[in-house]
Design goal:
Immunoglobulin-like, alpha+beta
Length: 238
């Protein structure tokens, strides 16, 4: 996402370079440190991690060490895939807008497809009007509650697979444009998230009555038209 289209803080300068051995190869880990978070990445094969600066807790880690339930990152013209490791006690919420039997809390094994459709919300496991590929992660760290959120700014259709110890994005296009909100409270996460995407605007009082009127009028008109057509059809048959 270009900086002039969505103004935001520029990436901090490179702080340090760490060398480590991986299968007899020298892997270089680049590290960027911000005010609240630390970003590390490995160029080959590419992977990255995001850690909380205050306690070193890993918030996102896309590296696959062979024992993980996912593979390496995939980046093609019409298919993208990336995963992250998660602790067993993480509680995830979000990935709207859809109807799930458990509400906004994510459960391992449930399907989470983001592909917007204009349908009513009476059906389960259905996509609705909007696409919000963001989730909030609540964790208990040594008896203290922490919250953070991860936003993948991508408008393409995607499937998100949550397995309990990992989360995988499978997308049909676009780029990996991630945003991490450090919190550390749920209220702070929402404040940071809406400061990026925009605050919701309050509706004027007169609009509530207008929306209610037109909603009732529209559905009443549709129902009336349906019954009228049925009546005319039977009249013609007679």
């Amino acid at each position: 996402m270009p900086y002039n289209l969505l103004p935001r803080e520029q990436a901090p300068a490179l702080k340090q370079t760490i060398g480590r051995s991986r299968k007899n190869l020298i892997t270089t880990v680049q590290e960027y440190s911000g005010a609240e978070l630390i970003f590390n990445y490995i160029a080959d094969p590419f992977s990255f991690s995001v850690k909380r600066k205050s306690n070193g807790q890993t918030l996102f880690n896309s590296s696959s060490d062979g024992s993980s339930s996912f593979g390496v990152m995939v980046f093609k013209d019409q298919y993208l895939e990336i995963s992250t490791q998660l602790p067993n006690d993480a509680s995830l919420y979000g990935l709207g807008e859809n109807t799930q039997p458990h509400g906004i809390k994510l459960f391992p094994g449930d399907p989470y497809t983001l592909y917007t459709t204009d349908i009513s919300a009476i059906n389960l496991n259905a996509d609705l009007y909007g696409s919000h590929p963001v989730y909030m992660d609540l964790r208990n760290v040594k008896g203290q509650a922490y919250a953070h959120a991860v936003l993948l700014l991508n408008s393409n259709g995607m499937d998100v697979f949550y397995r309990g110890t990992s989360l995988t994005y499978k997308i049909i296009g676009g780029v990996f444009d991630f945003y991490f909100f450090s919190g550390p409270s749920p209220l702070a996460v929402v404040d940071q998230y809406t400061s990026l995407i925009g605050r919701p605007a309050a509706m004027p009082y007169w609009a509530f009555g207008m929306i209610l009127f037109f909603t009732i009028f529209l559905f009443s008109f549709i129902a009336f038209s349906h019954h009228l057509l049925v009546y005319v059809f039977f009249v013609l048959l007679i």
